[in-house]
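Margin note from the TA: students keep mixing up input and output lines. Inputs are the sequences; the output is the structure of the whole complex. Example:
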Amino acid sequence: MLLLKNGLLVDPSQNICEKMDILIADNKVVELGKDIKTTSEMKVIDVSEKIVAPGFIDIHVHLREPGFEHKETILTGCRAAARGGFTGIACMPNTQPVADTEGVIELILARAKRYDLVDVYPIASITKGQEGKELTEFAILQECGAKALSEDGHSVRNSGVMRRALDYAKMLDLLIISHCEDEDLVGSGVMHEGLVSTQLGLAGIPREAEDIIIDRDIRLAELTKGRIHIAHVSTKSGVELIRAAKKRGVKVTAEVTPHHFSLTDTAVKGYCTNTKVNPPLRTEEDVYGLIKGLQDGTIDCIVTDHAPHAREEKDVEFDYAPFGISGLETAVPLAWQNLYLAGHLSMLDLIKALSTTPAKILGIDRGTIQAGKIADITVIDPELTQKVKREKFYSLGKNTPFQDWELTGWPILTIKAGKIVMEMGEVNG
Amino acid sequence: MGIKSKDLISLSDLSVEEIKEIFINAKAMKEIIRREIKKVPTLRGKAIINLFYENSTRTRSSFELAGKYMGADVINISASTSSVAKGESLWDTARTIERMGADVVIMRHPASGAHHILAKAIKARVINAGDGTHEHPTQALLDMFTMLEHLGTLSGKKIAIIGDVLHSRVARSNILGLNALGAEVWVCGPPTLLPAKVEKLGVKVTWDMKKALAGADVVMVLRIQLERQKKGLFPSTREYAKLYGLNQEKLKLAQENALVMHPGPMNRGIEITAEVAESSQSVIEEQVTNGVAIRMALLYAMGGGKFNVTA
């Protein structure tokens, strides 16, 4: 038995934000209590002055395996998740082969289970081979463990195909996650289109490239009465589209990444390829719009879009580097510092966006700390201030734009199904 | 004296004082070019490498001659003939060059910002001979030097830059330099060839060539790459020439003795007519000579040579 003593329990699922002990036996929570008596069978961890939250769920991660094991593997990705304070991650289907058949989904699940660090929820592609033409077998994929569908990295270009996907997924109540990008409008763009792109002589990506598809997919969800989740919103105008849709009653949810609310396009000056990400880093006005969206619930959750790449792939000219940021191991302190400490979100709302809501969106029985439920718990030290050091990343992807940033509010303990998988930044397993 | 910044990647790496000093020295360098024996020992024992990832005749030979006139050993590496063609990364190529003992590396590269990788990889000084659609600082220096030779000052002068500003590294460097020296810069082209928020660079923007030319002291015509038409940025070269080609009639809108410039190579009959290119107002060929002089002055300032240029 494991007893977490004297911590501040922050559980948005029950609207609890108070000092509470938590007793865990085997893989489940047994009891929450004001002052649980310790016995000799208990391993007691004193978590006074610490935040105890339901385990964080990141519903947008790239694990790269199978196919791109030089970038990341399921094992290293799971370790990075544990270190980052996540007990569950959903992985995108743009592997090689694409996760469009049972074989790939079952491979991911089997390996993740063998490593037994965090839950891995595979996301299957919407179309076969992510080619945008024929739908994958939604029902069969769901049955073997796919938790959502996405074409991540692309939009489904053909609106007719997207409509049918939303229509068909509806009968299975299967979530469709939309990466919104009009590829013709993006063209050869590599960063946000604006003054900075003009100064740097880099091809720009206008906000409209994202907004147009957000708008299209919201309308298709409205048409089909299907459910849509908008991935990595980066524009203020995109937030406004989602806000208006929610008001109309469209079944739409949305996510934001730490890099989009922590950085602007000025970070690209100096041509550091670790700032090259899709959608691109926008402007201060957009950052403000994203934070507003989090505040009023237009944006439901925080995800990393963890996109690890090998060093030799990123250490090239800006135009030639792949898009993506390795995000699992910096997300929590970035959110803590830039959202909670900055005064934008309450502690409850922040934890909700990291745990309770993403669990709900994915339809998994997580994001809560209650007797009888699986004991997935993340403990944050709100006083711990340290620098981001990519050398310490468990992820193979060292591509972070936050190297040497001093951040406060780090996860110090990750408990997965009652088992300590990370302690003080060290992963067990 | 010399140049404080290790590298010249952007024109903004130079202070106004440094730019002016380069101009003073370039004047002396022009004398050397006119001599029968055009070789001075200033940079003797120095190794200069021209690393060109893009085809170039003008800029590459201009740097090569400048280095040779100054007595340096100059070699040329072009991407098509080197290990680059075998897939070597810029970083590794840079490290190899460093180990061979280069003092100055001059690079042209199709990707904006590539010079930052080179500058980080090597201790040798880096000069940007054009990076993607970012900058081409030595072109701006030679352009401004040419303008100053004719106008005496740039302060308050109207400089009209006409054409594909979106893809022009020449325009970006010139805008920085001309603004620093107090000129009034206008950019003009179809909206599809103007970059986002270009007005925030401190220039006046117009689609109307007449407005850009009105009272201009200098008309700088940019090269239009014909493949842009295929990408749908303008409908035809015929229409481009009609709207933005510089001919005698349009040139009359500018000051009577307005200078006509072009960084070359020209598409005669498209962005500029042969008559204008060869007119008495054209300083296009002077730009070429000044290019060598400016690069000599720059190599002098960055090559660490000890020499009195007037000796």
